[in-house]
Design a protein that fits this description.
five-stranded parallel sheet, Rossmann fold, four-stranded mixed sheet, about 325 residues, alpha/beta, binds xanthosine-5'-monophosphate, GMP Synthetase, Chain A, domain 3
Length: about 325
């Protein structure tokens, strides 16, 4: 069966096995696409990054990667994709900063499902527009991995790149579709991708959009991006990092006080919520301890962000609470 992992396929755990897999896939991709061009939506996540690095080895500039910045990425993320793929791997990379388009469409929208639909729909539109500008593409590469096939009939769980419009039907190139996540990481490492890309924590397709709850505003989103960078920097220093860790800024304010010329002035500000979780499957989730001095260090940095006056720690387990807030 085309979508069943071959029974005799060994688990890839070593560098040698990864190298053998890479050589095999390079030959298979060359055989499949010949001298035709292949398009890829490169999010910067592990799966699409590994596919990009593999295809660059196989077909070089005939891989056209498109990185869409929807304005909901974490601090430094788009820059890293550009640096690794354009500067280090010499990829044929199209970078589209569509921040204004996404944020304008999301303005005033507070329903979580509607927000997700807008982000997913707009993503396909931007990607399709880029694809139409290129007239000689014959294949679409995708970072489908084996759990996507097992769990959701070959569609990436919550994936943003769903059905492209009818006029953009390409042959599919899915070189890692029989790999489990840990194997994709071993292959990524062998391909020379940086550790913070290969061992990246999960990050939802709608990005910071699900963590800036309610109607997204640019100033609250910017505060969230800064707070997220602080939390990642501090937690990354721990000897053992949790499975996923990030911030949320809910769409609500609470009272703060600041002293101007010795006189207390009350004002309304945002609360930053720190969330860190451990899990193996994202279904059952526990909350790891974070040392109190690390929490205080994060607080001291986070409260310097304009508009923020409170820092909280979310100790909710799943079930009942989901990992994300929306
Ligand atoms: P929840 O919030 O359902 O999340 O406990 C479980 C895992 O899935 C991630 N997640 C998403 N990933 N698009 C994605 O690609 C999404 O819309 C999405 N929503 C949640 C979440 O970060 C967690 O790892």
């Amino acid at each position: 069966m085309e979508n069943k992992r071959p029974d005799d396929m060994q688990r890839i755990t070593t560098r040698e096995q990864a190298d053998a897999f890479i050589a095999e896939q390079i030959a298979a991709v060359k055989e499949q696409v010949g001298d035709k061009k292949v398009l890829l939506a490169l999010s910067g996540g592990v799966d699409s990054s590994v596919v990009a690095a593999l295809l660059i080895k196989a077909i070089g500039k005939n891989l056209v990667s498109v990185h869409v910045n929807h304005g909901l990425l974490r601090k430094g993320e788009a820059e890293q994709v550009i640096d690794v793929f354009r500067n280090q791997l010499d990829a044929n990379l199209i970078y589209v900063d569509a921040t204004d388009r996404f944020l304008d469409k999301l303005a005033g929208v507070d329903d979580p499902e509607t927000k997700r639909k807008i982000i997913g729909g707009e993503f396909i539109e931007v990607f399709a527009e880029e694809a139409r500008k290129l007239d000689d593409i014959e294949f679409l590469a995708q970072g489908t991995i084996y759990p996507d096939i097992l769990e959701s009939k070959g569609v990436k769980a919550h994936h943003n790149v769903g059905g492209l419009p009818e006029d953009l039907k390409f042959g599919l190139v899915e070189p890692v579709k029989f790999l489990y996540k840990d194997e994709v990481r071993v292959v990524g490492k062998a391909l020379g991708l940086p550790d913070n890309m290969v061992y990246r924590q999960p990050f939802p397709g709608p990005g910071l959009g699900v963590r800036c709850t309610g109607a997204i505003t640019r100033d609250r989103l910017e505060a969230l991006r800064e707070a997220d960078a602080i939390v990642r920097e501090e937690i990354d220093k721990l000897p053992e990092t949790p499975w996923q860790y990030f911030c949320v800024i809910p769409d609500m304010q609470s009272t703060g006080i600041k002293y101007v010329d010795g006189k207390g002035e009350r004002y309304m500000g945002w609360a930053v919520i720190i969330r860190a979780v451990n899990t193996t499957d994202a279904v059952k989730v526990t909350v790891p301890e974070i040392p109190f001095d690390v929490l205080c260090k994060m607080r001291d940095e986070i409260v310097k962000i304009p508009g923020v006056n409170r820092v909280l720690w979310d100790i909710s387990e799943k079930p009942l609470a989901t990992i994300e807030w929306e």
